[in-house]
Amino acid sequence: MPRELHPVRLVGAGPGPADLLTVRALRAIEGAEALLYDALVSEEVLALAPAACLKIQTGKRAGRTSLKQETINRLMLRLARRGLKVVRLKGGDPSIFGRVGEETAFLHAHGLSTEVVPGVTAACAAAAQFGFPLTHRGQARRVVFTTARLEAGAVPAEWAAAADPEATLAVYMGRDTAPGVASALIAAGRSPRTPVAILENVGAPAARAVFEGSLLSLSRSAPPLGDGPALVVVGEAVAAMTAAGAHCPATRSRAG
């Protein structure tokens, strides 16, 4: 008798610490028989999987070698067809730059069901860890999640929507293009005096603010960055981070 085919679970691992997982994500990881995980998933989270679980690192770090998306899709399909409980584990939230739409469409097209388990995304983790709001009355009425990288690695040319002075802008995958993003926002009409911060390793104990300043100062020089993932946050509400002070160890580079 063929084994039952379980739904493939596309799970958000959050920003790193295991205690920021949802309860549903924790249960999925603890029950996994095959775990395909991205490079940003922490060792603390991976340790929650059963000892007998098959663990496959799929990469997914900007500028580094990783499995092709087609290969990941076919791995999930093959393992699920063997009757295994497959968990595709992604840093942050699967629906925010996590390619969950592509993976879900592929699996559905091959007759498999899926379950998406949300996770804490980096922008929300950054706001909590560094003490600033993503929205704030009179300053920020909306939040824009965007990426500084397109499919071919280029920087997007259209930033008009992000130039809204009442929007907090969270730029994912912006570590290598931050000065260009700042220049593009100014060119699109955002005030050069708009506060901006670059936050590295958000969610982790080693999180730090590597830059705090204005769009103008960022457009003029690239701050030194470490090896961790970086989030660029732009908007008037970001100024509260400096006023309140981050409640975590942080190395700060301030510019006017």
Task: Based on the model shown, name its key terms.
five-stranded mixed beta sheet, Methyltransferase, Cobalt-precorrin-4 Transmethylase, Domain 2, alpha/beta, Cobalt-precorrin-4 Transmethylase, domain 1, five-stranded parallel beta sheet, 256 residues, 2 domains
Total domain units: 2
As a whole number of angstroms, the C-alpha radius of gyration is 19 Å
Q: CA-to-CA gap between the ends? A: 69 Å
Proportion of residues in extended strands: 15-25%
Helical residue percent band: 25-40%
Oligomeric status of the shown chains?
single chain
CATH architecture of the largest domain: 2-Layer Sandwich
Number of strands: 10
Shape from CA axes?
Answer: elongated
Describe the protein's topology.
Elements: E1 8-12, H1 23-30, E2 34-38, H2 43-46, E3 54-59, H3 69-81, E4 86-90, H4 100-109, E5 114-117, H5 122-130, E6 142-147, E7 167-172, H6 178-187, E8 195-200, E9 208-214, H7 215-220, E10 230-234, H8 239-244
Parallel strand pairs: 1-4, 1-5, 2-3, 2-4, 6-7
Antiparallel strand pairs: 7-10, 8-9, 8-10
